[in-house]
Amino acid sequence: MVLLSPSVSGLSKMLQKCEQYMLSHGMVYNTKKSEFMVFVSGNKKPKTVPPVLLNGVALKRVSHYKYLGHILTESLRDDMDIERERRALSVRCNMLARRFARSSEQVKITLFKAFCQSFYTSSLWVDYTQRSYSALRVQYNNAFRVLLRRPHFCSASAMFTEARTDGFHAIIRKRAASMLRRLRDSHNSILEVIADRIDCKLLKHWIKLLIN
User: Fold this and answer.
1) The model scores a pTM over 0.90
2) Is residue 181 located within the same domain as residue 93?
3) How far apart are CA 164 and CA 106, in angstroms?
């Protein structure tokens, strides 16, 4: 469960409500597995943060947290999550190359599409360095080369075109378009506002991806 509040005092009140609900239902929160994070704006960081209590226990403050497979950071930058995806991609590709080394090329391409093109939550990436983004792109290209035993210097675009497989940028654009479509089709009022705001950071980034 995630609680979001614009202030520490507001978060404390929300936790008190949660404690009352749990007590009335004979349950107790696990404070060892509960943590809190303070999102910062640019270089502005609060000098002091009051303790956040749950069941009388001060919760641990963290700078990043993995929620539903996506890494959130206090700065809201996506480099750490992109690195998570790069590492996961490396592991999956090495597994495929090792276990299916003697399979036909078509089988390898099918497996690559199934295991190496998910880019989980990539449609949420909007604030990152070009270095981390390029590292993931290079990892994706090299993964396909290793699996199909192509030389390291071969053209990535020609390689994917020949195999009739989406390249890195094509996948990212498709993920962004899919997310935008689902937001606009949603009946949730909050999601509708995000999809329709011209100044929305997510929307601006998605449009930039689709145009480029």
Assistant:
1) no
2) yes
3) 10
